Amino acid sequence: ERALAQGAHMRTPGRAETLWGASWLAAHQSDYAQALALAQEGLELARDLSDQRLIGLLLESVADGLYRFGDNERAIQCVEESLDIFRNLGDREETAWALDHLARGLRQRGERARSRALVRESLAIFRELGHHYAIASSLGHAARLALEDDDNAAAAELLAEGLALARMM
Fold first, then answer.
1. How far is Cα 49 from Cα 117, in angstroms, rounded to an integer?
2. CB count, 10 Å around CB of 31?
3. How is 4-20 classified by DSSP, letter by letter?
4. Best CA proximity match to 118, nearest among 79, 89, 148
5. CB 99 within 8 A of CB 125
6. N- to C-terminal Cα separation, the chain
7. Distance from CA of residue 25 to its chain's centroid?
8. For the residues 115-123, what does the mean pLDDT come to?
9. What is the 3-state secondary structure (H, E, C) of 72-90?
Protein backbone atom coordinates (compact mmCIF):
# COMPACT_ATOMS: atom_id res chain seq x y z
CA GLU A 1 0.00 0.00 0.00
CA ARG A 2 2.85 2.38 0.82
CA ALA A 3 4.63 1.60 -2.44
CA LEU A 4 1.46 2.16 -4.43
CA ALA A 5 0.76 5.42 -2.59
CA GLN A 6 4.30 6.71 -3.13
CA GLY A 7 4.20 5.82 -6.81
CA ALA A 8 0.67 7.09 -7.48
CA HIS A 9 2.03 9.68 -9.89
CA MET A 10 3.84 7.07 -12.02
CA ARG A 11 2.40 5.92 -15.35
CA THR A 12 4.72 2.99 -16.06
CA PRO A 13 4.41 -0.72 -16.83
CA GLY A 14 6.02 -1.34 -13.43
CA ARG A 15 3.15 0.41 -11.68
CA ALA A 16 0.55 -1.53 -13.70
CA GLU A 17 2.32 -4.78 -12.81
CA THR A 18 2.43 -3.76 -9.15
CA LEU A 19 -1.30 -3.03 -9.22
CA TRP A 20 -1.85 -6.49 -10.73
CA GLY A 21 0.23 -8.11 -7.99
CA ALA A 22 -1.48 -6.10 -5.26
CA SER A 23 -4.86 -7.09 -6.68
CA TRP A 24 -3.85 -10.76 -6.60
CA LEU A 25 -2.66 -10.42 -3.02
CA ALA A 26 -5.86 -8.63 -1.91
CA ALA A 27 -7.98 -11.36 -3.51
CA HIS A 28 -6.01 -14.04 -1.69
CA GLN A 29 -6.62 -12.16 1.55
CA SER A 30 -10.37 -12.17 0.75
CA ASP A 31 -10.48 -8.39 0.26
CA TYR A 32 -12.39 -8.70 -3.00
CA ALA A 33 -13.54 -5.08 -3.24
CA GLN A 34 -9.95 -3.85 -2.93
CA ALA A 35 -8.75 -6.51 -5.37
CA LEU A 36 -11.26 -5.38 -7.98
CA ALA A 37 -10.45 -1.69 -7.48
CA LEU A 38 -6.71 -2.32 -7.86
CA ALA A 39 -7.24 -4.47 -10.95
CA GLN A 40 -9.47 -1.83 -12.57
CA GLU A 41 -6.89 0.88 -11.90
CA GLY A 42 -4.14 -1.32 -13.30
CA LEU A 43 -6.20 -2.19 -16.37
CA GLU A 44 -6.83 1.47 -17.13
CA LEU A 45 -3.10 2.16 -16.88
CA ALA A 46 -2.14 -0.90 -18.96
CA ARG A 47 -4.58 0.22 -21.67
CA ASP A 48 -3.07 3.74 -21.62
CA LEU A 49 0.37 2.14 -22.04
CA SER A 50 -0.87 -0.30 -24.73
CA ASP A 51 0.85 -3.15 -22.88
CA GLN A 52 -1.04 -6.15 -24.23
CA ARG A 53 0.31 -8.73 -21.78
CA LEU A 54 -0.56 -6.58 -18.78
CA ILE A 55 -3.96 -5.79 -20.27
CA GLY A 56 -4.61 -9.53 -20.54
CA LEU A 57 -3.46 -10.25 -16.99
CA LEU A 58 -5.45 -7.39 -15.52
CA LEU A 59 -8.56 -8.36 -17.48
CA GLU A 60 -8.32 -11.75 -15.74
CA SER A 61 -8.09 -10.02 -12.35
CA VAL A 62 -11.02 -7.72 -13.13
CA ALA A 63 -13.03 -10.75 -14.27
CA ASP A 64 -12.27 -12.56 -11.02
CA GLY A 65 -13.66 -9.62 -9.07
CA LEU A 66 -16.70 -9.34 -11.30
CA TYR A 67 -17.40 -13.06 -10.87
CA ARG A 68 -17.19 -12.66 -7.09
CA PHE A 69 -19.67 -9.78 -7.14
CA GLY A 70 -22.12 -11.61 -9.40
CA ASP A 71 -21.48 -9.75 -12.66
CA ASN A 72 -20.95 -12.92 -14.67
CA GLU A 73 -21.65 -11.40 -18.08
CA ARG A 74 -19.11 -8.58 -17.79
CA ALA A 75 -16.61 -11.05 -16.35
CA ILE A 76 -17.06 -13.33 -19.36
CA GLN A 77 -16.49 -10.35 -21.68
CA CYS A 78 -13.24 -9.54 -19.87
CA VAL A 79 -12.01 -13.13 -20.07
CA GLU A 80 -12.91 -13.43 -23.75
CA GLU A 81 -10.86 -10.30 -24.46
CA SER A 82 -8.01 -11.67 -22.37
CA LEU A 83 -8.15 -14.99 -24.23
CA ASP A 84 -7.90 -13.19 -27.58
CA ILE A 85 -4.89 -11.21 -26.35
CA PHE A 86 -3.00 -14.25 -25.08
CA ARG A 87 -3.73 -16.27 -28.20
CA ASN A 88 -2.45 -13.38 -30.33
CA LEU A 89 0.67 -13.14 -28.16
CA GLY A 90 1.24 -16.89 -28.42
CA ASP A 91 1.32 -17.15 -24.62
CA ARG A 92 0.26 -20.76 -24.05
CA GLU A 93 0.17 -20.68 -20.26
CA GLU A 94 -1.94 -17.54 -20.01
CA THR A 95 -4.16 -18.81 -22.82
CA ALA A 96 -4.79 -21.93 -20.74
CA TRP A 97 -5.61 -19.86 -17.65
CA ALA A 98 -8.00 -17.70 -19.68
CA LEU A 99 -9.71 -20.82 -21.03
CA ASP A 100 -10.06 -22.11 -17.48
CA HIS A 101 -11.50 -18.80 -16.26
CA LEU A 102 -13.89 -18.59 -19.20
CA ALA A 103 -15.08 -22.11 -18.42
CA ARG A 104 -15.93 -20.89 -14.91
CA GLY A 105 -18.20 -18.16 -16.23
CA LEU A 106 -19.85 -20.39 -18.78
CA ARG A 107 -20.53 -23.01 -16.10
CA GLN A 108 -22.18 -20.33 -13.96
CA ARG A 109 -24.23 -19.29 -16.99
CA GLY A 110 -25.39 -22.88 -17.42
CA GLU A 111 -23.31 -23.66 -20.50
CA ARG A 112 -21.75 -26.80 -19.04
CA ALA A 113 -20.99 -28.55 -22.34
CA ARG A 114 -18.97 -25.58 -23.60
CA SER A 115 -17.42 -25.19 -20.16
CA ARG A 116 -16.29 -28.84 -20.20
CA ALA A 117 -14.74 -28.37 -23.66
CA LEU A 118 -12.78 -25.31 -22.49
CA VAL A 119 -11.58 -27.10 -19.35
CA ARG A 120 -10.36 -30.00 -21.53
CA GLU A 121 -8.52 -27.56 -23.81
CA SER A 122 -7.00 -25.77 -20.83
CA LEU A 123 -6.00 -29.04 -19.21
CA ALA A 124 -4.33 -30.25 -22.43
CA ILE A 125 -2.19 -27.11 -22.58
CA PHE A 126 -1.25 -27.33 -18.90
CA ARG A 127 -0.29 -31.00 -19.38
CA GLU A 128 1.82 -30.05 -22.41
CA LEU A 129 3.56 -27.39 -20.29
CA GLY A 130 3.99 -29.74 -17.31
CA HIS A 131 2.38 -27.15 -14.99
CA HIS A 132 1.34 -29.41 -12.10
CA TYR A 133 -0.42 -26.77 -10.00
CA ALA A 134 -2.50 -25.65 -12.98
CA ILE A 135 -3.27 -29.25 -13.96
CA ALA A 136 -4.54 -29.93 -10.44
CA SER A 137 -6.63 -26.77 -10.51
CA SER A 138 -8.20 -27.64 -13.87
CA LEU A 139 -8.86 -31.19 -12.71
CA GLY A 140 -10.79 -29.71 -9.78
CA HIS A 141 -12.91 -27.67 -12.18
CA ALA A 142 -13.52 -30.72 -14.36
CA ALA A 143 -14.54 -32.67 -11.25
CA ARG A 144 -17.04 -29.97 -10.27
CA LEU A 145 -18.62 -30.23 -13.71
CA ALA A 146 -18.75 -34.02 -13.42
CA LEU A 147 -20.45 -33.73 -10.01
CA GLU A 148 -23.02 -31.32 -11.45
CA ASP A 149 -23.71 -33.93 -14.13
CA ASP A 150 -24.13 -36.61 -11.41
CA ASP A 151 -21.08 -38.47 -12.72
CA ASN A 152 -19.56 -39.32 -9.36
CA ALA A 153 -17.16 -41.91 -10.77
CA ALA A 154 -15.59 -39.41 -13.19
CA ALA A 155 -15.43 -36.76 -10.46
CA ALA A 156 -13.67 -39.20 -8.11
CA GLU A 157 -11.15 -40.12 -10.80
CA LEU A 158 -10.41 -36.47 -11.61
CA LEU A 159 -10.04 -35.55 -7.94
CA ALA A 160 -7.77 -38.55 -7.28
CA GLU A 161 -5.48 -37.46 -10.11
CA GLY A 162 -5.46 -33.89 -8.79
CA LEU A 163 -4.69 -35.06 -5.27
CA ALA A 164 -1.81 -37.21 -6.52
CA LEU A 165 -0.35 -34.19 -8.31
CA ALA A 166 -0.82 -31.98 -5.25
CA ARG A 167 1.07 -34.48 -3.13
CA MET A 168 4.00 -34.31 -5.57
CA MET A 169 4.31 -30.53 -5.25
1. 34
2. 14
3. HHHTTT--SHHHHHHHH
4. 79
5. yes
6. 31
7. 14
8. 96
9. HHHHHHHHHHHHHHHHHHC
